[in-house]
Every structure is written in structure tokens, then in C-alpha cells.
Design a protein that fits this description.
Chain lengths: 138, 143
Amino acid sequence: MTDLSTVAVGTELPALQVTFDRQRLVRYAGASGDFNPIHYSDHHARALGLAGCLAHGMLTMGVGLRVVTDWCVDPGRVRRYSVRFTKPVQVPDDDAGAVVHFTARVSAIEDAVATVAIDARCGEDKVLGAAVAEVSLA
Amino acid sequence: MPISAAHAGKTYPPTAPYEVTRGKIAEFAAALGDANPAYAAAAPVAPPTFAAVLAAEAWGALFADPELDLQLKRTIHYDQAFDFVRPLRAGDEVTASLTIDKVRLRGATAFITVSVALATTAGEPVCTAVSTLLHTWPSEDAS
């Protein structure tokens, strides 16, 4: 369990690597109620000029917060979480899927609230922009 | 006339109450691949981004308002922020109330900032979800 009393600016959180495959997209569609076909149907995605199915932005955002909640354990400590959807995760219809690497670092601490900057990459692509969570340390 | 800066400040009635359940929390956490014990505790809380499911419900008011001339399929989710007062818990009955905060038009694209206030039916605030949505109207000569 993380000892939050030792957290300092510059503290690196344990990195997280998550595979996005088609099953994950279908599960998220069902759980979230977002049935936009670009997330499960290649022919719908191609009709919009895309190479194939994309992960839901909210799925990438939701999985990205795990790098923070795996660390702080209690999700109730998260006071704020914000991202920009810079580039969607392309999810091929194969066994390998797309692997997203999440890293995070404490960038500020004020009034017992840590600001955590999250970096989310799939290959060379930065899939979330300005991803920041505020975590209560008290 | 479609949506314009004059719509900033427009509010919509709250969505019908939604009951957060243990089963839905488990399903949503599994979809994120998130094994955090808080989501399976005796009194489970929902993963923080579950709030988006309720916020998206409230977005429906935008597409149902003929004054705005907006279609979901022409809309892109540009950014998202959540301010949490407390986690959503199993047993909460929650409504979502939408406000248009800001509208900027650039050519055929509208940048629409909306905030959705989530509160229990007892009136306790839980979370505010702020989103920027990009809506693009088709060009005149497109079919």
C-alpha cells in the first residue's frame, strides 16, 4: 500500500500498461451505453474515413485514471480529473490489440492535494493531452 | 438559427433519477479492467469516470433541442473534466442537469462547453462534469 505521507513533487507513480482489444471496446460500449458503431464496426468506421475501430475516448480516460487509483488505492481521494482527447486509440481486430502505456508523476502539492500529470501513449501517439488528476493526501 | 454564443447560460431540466447499483458498478469496473477493491466492497463506490455515463444522458437535451440544430453523429468529444464532491455509491439516486456554459463558432464548427451537475434526489451535489463538444455542420454543397 502506498504511503501517501512520503509523496513529494517529482514522485513517479508505478507505470501501467493496458491492452485495448475489440472485446474491451464491446465491454465498454455495453457498460457505458455508448453504442457509437465506430467503436465496434469496421465498416461504420471506414465510412467515416477512419482506418478501423477506435477506442471510446472515455474508455481511455477511465483506464488512464487506474494509474492514479492503483497508487492511491481509495478512488474517493480523486478530487478532479481532466483530459483532452488528442488522438484516439486505433484498435485492430487481432489477438495483439493496441497497447497503451500510462505513466504519471506528481507535479505539484498544495494544501494536501497532489496534482498528478498523466502521460498516455500508444506507440508514438500521445492519446490523452493535458491529463491531470488532483488527489487528496489528507 | 443554430446554436450561438447567445445560448450560453441556457439550462435544461434534470434527467430522470438513475439508481447506481452494485451490479452496474461491477460491470463498469470490469470494462475498465479495474480490480480496485473499493468497487467490490460491502458498500461499493463507482469508478470516478462512471459519472460520464450519467453526464452523457444529460447531453441528450442538446440534441433534442430544435433551436440548437445539433446532431450526435456530427459531434466529437474534445475534452472532459470532472470535479468530484464525493464518489458515487451503490444506492445513490442521481439526476443530471445540463447547462450550456460557452459557445464559440469557427466557420461550420461550434465549440460547445457544457457542464452537467450530478446530484442525489435528496439534493446532495456529487460531481460536476464539464465537457467541450465539437459540432460540425455539413457544408452547403454536401449531400
